[in-house]
Structures are given as C-alpha cells and as structure tokens.
Amino acid sequence: MLLYNSLTHNKEEFFTNEPGKVKLYTCGPTVYHYAHIGNLRTYMMEDVLDKYLRYLGYDVLRVMNITDVGHLSSDADTGEDKMLKGARREHKTVMEIAKFYTDAFFDDCRRLNIRIPDVIEPATGCIPEFIHMIEVLLEKGYAYQAGGNVYFDTSKLKEYYVFNKHEEEDLMVGVREGVEEDVNKRNKNDFVLWFTKSKFEDQALKWDSPWGVGYPGWHIECSCISMKHCGEYLDIHCGGIDNAFPHHTNEIAQSEAYLGHKWCNFWFHVLHLNDASGKMSKSKGAFLTLSVLTDKGYDPMAYRLFCLQSHYRRNLVFTWEGLDNAAVTYNKLVARIAALKESDGAVDEEAAAALRAKFREALDNDLNTSLAVTALYDVLKYKTDDRTKLAVLGEFDAVLGLNLLDAAAKKREEQKQAAAQAAKQAGAYTVVAEGCEPDTAVEEQIRARYDAKKAKNFAEADRIRDELKAQGIEIIDVPGGAKYRKN
Ligand SMILES: [Zn+2]
Predict the structure, then answer these.
(1) pLDDT at position 162, please?
(2) 27 C-alpha vs ligand 1 centroid, how far in Å?
(3) 403 and 344 belong to one structural domain
(4) What's the CA dihedral at 165, 168, 170, 176 to 10 degrees?
(5) Would 279 be classed as within a structural domain?
(6) Confidence (pLDDT) at 71
(7) Rounded to the nearest whole angstrom, what is the distance from the C-alpha of residue 219 to the centroid of ligand 1?
(8) What is the distance in A from the centroid of ligand 1 to the CA of 222?
C-alpha cells in the first residue's frame, strides 16, 4: 500500500515497526463545542484508513486523546483556554462542558459510522505522565523555566520545521487577534509545556507540579498519551492539516527530544473542508454541524459519501448542491443493492477475486476513496450472481462504512410493506402457502371461497372450506388474503 507521508512529501510503501501490527494515533477533539463538519471529514477519512488497514489483515491499535484542558484559543501559547471559554459561554463548569461535548462528538461518530478508537484518553487523566516527560526534557536540557512556566527550547533541535518551511509571518506577534507577545520565550517558536502563570485567575483545572500549581500545554498531551499506549515507536499519526503546524511540529520536537530517536514513521494529514467563505472554522460564529445537516433531512451517510467521493489530500468545498447530489447518488446505490436477490450458497470466488483486486488497487494508491466508491458500481455491473455481489459489497462497505447493506435491507422491507399496503388498498386478495409447497389447485379453491363469501354465498364458502379440510388443508384468514397449510 502506498501512503502519502507529510514528513517526506512523498507517497511511500507502507511499513510497520512490528510485522502485522499498526499503532495508529489520532488527535482527538477539543471538547468545548460541537465538531464542525470539516473536523468530522478528517475523522471519517482517518476511519477509512483504520478500516482499510484492518481489511488488509493488520492488527490495528488506534488511540485517540480528548483535549479537555490546556488548549488555548490561539495555536500559539496565548489566548484564552478553549474549555474555559466554552464553560463561560454556556454557564457550566469546565467538566460539564467536557462531558457534554465528548458525548456529542461520539454521537456524531456513531451517526457517521466512524469506528470508536480502541483507546480514548482524556488529557486530564494523564497529568503524572505529562509531568514526567517535562522533567526528562528539563534534565536533558531541552526545556527551561521562565516567568513561572516551563518552555520547550526549540533552538536545541537540529531541525524544527519538519513538515514545511513555515512562513514566518504566521508567527508574527500582533498580526492575529488575541496573540500577545510572550516575553519569557527565548526563541519565537518555543512553546509552553507547563503553565503556572495563567493570565486567567479562574482557570478551573489546576494540578500540583514540581514547578508550582498549574496545567499542561496542549502539545504535550498527544506525545504522552501516544507513548502511554503505543510505546516509543508509532506507525501512523493522523490529524487535520491545520494541526501540522505548530501542534504536530511541537509533538515531534518534544517526543524525539525525550526519546532520543525517531518517533513516528508516517504522518497522515487530511486537508481542509471549505465553504463559500473559505476555511470552515468555529471562531466565525455560526458553523455547520452534523445536526444542521440531519435537521434539514440529510442522511449522515450522504455526507459520508460526499466526503468519500473526494481525495483526502485535496481541499473539499462544501455546497448544498454537492450534498444534494451525494444524497441522490446514495439513494440510487441503495436501491440497486436492494434489488439484488439474497440466497444461500457458495460465492463465485473468481468474480470476487477480480472485484477485490480493483477495490484494492484504488485504496492501495494513497487511499483513493473516490475510485473505491466506483468499485461498488463495478460489483453491481459484473456478470455474476447476486449472492456474490452482496457478499463483495459487504466486504467493501466494511471499509467504506456507508451502511449500504443495512440501508438496502431497510429499503427492501419498506418496499414490501408498501406493496402490501397497495395491494390491500386495491382490494387484492393474496394467498400464501405456509410451511408447505405452493399448490395452484388449492389456491384456486381458496380464491373461489373468497369470491363466494363476497357474494354472500356462505353455504358455498363453507362447503369449499370443509372440502379442503377433508384434504388436510387449513385456511387461516389474514388481512388482505389468506394463508394455508397442509396438516
Ligand atoms: Zn494532537
């Protein structure tokens, strides 16, 4: 499998540290507000990666953090704590806010068919680990104390900008609203590992530390939580592209300084979801959540398909027309699958192998999900039996997560009920054999009995019933028809 690696700017043959095992770390949400649909796109594409690695037979351990402390409203180490900001906005405690939005996040994941990671760790559960890593960084000379805080010293690194030659203007103090100069930093890229000098006296969550009562910086949590569960060698680290700098850059700086060796081999970044006004962001006030979409009547699976139709390494522009098109495509796809006949028996292995090869070709090439979606149509068009098609579609959908077979089963049931309803309304009379072979002669007799009853010729109706009874046929009247069984 070829996977693009942000570290090398190349598609590389995927490899793991341990044969057959993948240690996958995902930056989780900062739980101060609902996730917007751009955040959710990132988690969905990471979910496809996770599921495809499992499809390939890897034993995947996926770990995700929940940022419930220490993420400031600026990506630099300035601004207000996002959690505190959320608590103020909603007149709740920080822990209430964290609980509420953590639940909301996993509810979105469930609706979008995103597999819940194997390990979910809130930052507030790992304070001793953060303190330990900071102590080691201080001992090794990669960190210093100034003005009450502990900072990482980026001048000690051979290379700091691992992903890109970053535009210096992005870091210029005062350019962005709310960014103030931190006079304690020795170098402009230095970042806080531990705060004790909070500008906000009502900082709700504080812990004891060797440097005084305070709270951790944001970046330290991902390094520590990853190492706690995945050990010193990570295979893939995922996140949105906006996390590449400074968050992931700082994660690498402190992790490799701490470990003394390379930490993570592959960096998987999902690009932005933009709307007509540009990059989607929570700081702009109103923003699109999954509930906004479902309140308008969209199936979350339509949004999943909308995202899968585009490559994760491209910026995707969200439009309602685009979502409408995806909804139409999704419904048509489900209807075609619903029309396939289920049956027992062996799968046409030759056909299945040919179809699997196409699907793998798409995803082996840097997770090309839009071609993988096309492979679903190849299955529907392929000259093989419906049983094989359903089996292969089920396999593919275990990766794509579009809930196709369940949606098709639901549609089939709806169609059956609609047909029964229509037949009832049209006064149709259905005769069905129960637990015995259908017998046309018997069915004709039952219909004749029905006609007799309708004509109020009850003597004739009873005669037919008795005659059938003598042959061991029992008639059971049901709404819109009758069932019969042979005793
Ligand atoms: Zn992170």
Answers:
(1) 87
(2) 4
(3) yes
(4) 170
(5) no
(6) 74
(7) 6
(8) 5
What is the per-residue pLDDT for 172?
Answer: 45
Q: How far, in Å, from the CA of 65 to the mean position of ligand 1?
A: 7
| Residue 365: half-sphere exposure toward Cβ, Cα within 13 Å | 11
User: What is the pLDDT at residue 183?
Assistant: 86
Split into its structural domains, the chain has a count of 3
Pairing of the two strands 215-216 and 191-195: antiparallel
pLDDT in tens, 168-190: 544 444 344 445 678 889 998 89
pLDDT band at 95 (very low <50, low <70, confident <90, very high): confident
Full domain range(s) for residue 378 = 290-415
Last residue of a domain, one of 270, 303, 331: 270
On whether the CB atoms of residues 288 and 37 are closer than 8 A, the answer is yes
Best CA proximity match to 270, nearest among 54, 484, 49: 49
Compute, in angstroms, the gap from residue 218 CA to the centroid of ligand 1: 8
Strands 316-317 and 273-275: parallel
* Percentage of residues of the chain with pLDDT beyond 90: 72
Q: Judge if 69 and 213 occupy the same domain.
A: yes
Cα distance between residue 473 and residue 485, in whole Å: 6
Query: Does residue 69 surpass a pLDDT of 90?
Result: no
CATH label of the domain that carries residue 132: 3.40.50.620
Asked if residue 452 has pLDDT above 90, the reply is yes
Q: Are residues 312 and 211 in the same domain?
A: no
Q: Are 199 and 214 contacting, i.e. CB atoms less than 8 angstroms apart?
A: no
CATH of the domain at 347: 1.20.120
The CB density around residue 458, as the number of other CB atoms within 10 Å, is 10
Residues 223, 299, single domain; the answer is: no
Asked if 306 and 344 sit in the same domain, the reply is yes
**pLDDT at residue 174 in the model:** 39
Q: Could you tell me the pTM of the whole model?
A: 0.85
pLDDT band at residue 19 under the 50/70/90 scheme: very high
